[in-house]
Amino acid sequence: MKNFFDYNKDKFNLLLKNTNCNKELNYCVSIFKKYKKKNKIILVGNGGSAAIASHVSVDLNKNAKIKSLTFNEPSFITCLANDYGHENWMKEALDIYCHKNDLVILISSSGNSKNILKAAKWCVKKKIKLITFSGFSPNNSLIKSNYNGINFWVNSKSYNHVELMHLFLLLSIMDASIGRLYYRFS
Question: Would 146 be classed as within a structural domain?
């Protein structure tokens, strides 16, 4: 097992070392700072990516004082999926909650989830500011659909490495927009 953990750690450290997106990260920090006073950030994902969206949304609301939300309420998801189909529920949720000057962050390890792709196309059509996080293939459909937006791509086919990098990047953007890494709570 020790060899597996060392191998896994080395692979992830290599991902961290080779992630060179400082220009995009700094641009996202400037975007996040604009949302402190108005509008909101909506984070959307499936499975592990939905958990990442929830974690980041809570931290944005609590630590950064930026209005944020996710669509992770089971009754809401199943209602929209039942009425509009699983591939359309995210797009329909955005239609309900997203306003003109909001920011949408779509998170998909593969970059090929149909419901995420339909949400991306909705954002592009409505001219909603969009940031995407994906992995696996550098030519995945999510990157292609967000041709005018910011795309963070993780060069790995490991779900856990892609998801860890997505969480690391999003929380790094949030911390940089606040200007600190440590928080005091009483």
Answer: yes
Per the structure, the complete domain to which residue 171 belongs is given by 37-178
Asked if residue 17 lies in contact with residue 92, where contact means CB atoms within 8 angstroms, the answer is no
The CATH number that applies at residue 149 is 3.40.50.10490
Contacts by 57-61 with C-beta closer than 8 Å and gap 24+? Answer: 59/171, 59/174, 60/32, 60/174
Q: What is the DSSP letter of 151?
A: E
Q: Per residue in 132-157, pLDDT tens?
A: 999 999 999 999 999 888 999 999 99
Q: What is the model's pTM?
A: 0.93
Q: What share of the chain is helix, strand, coil (3-state, %, to 5)?
A: 60, 15, 30
Look at the chain and report how many structural domains it folds into. 1
Give the CA dihedral 147, 153, 156, 161, nearest 10 degrees.
-140
Any residues with CB less than 8 A from the CB of 160 and at least 6 apart, and which? none
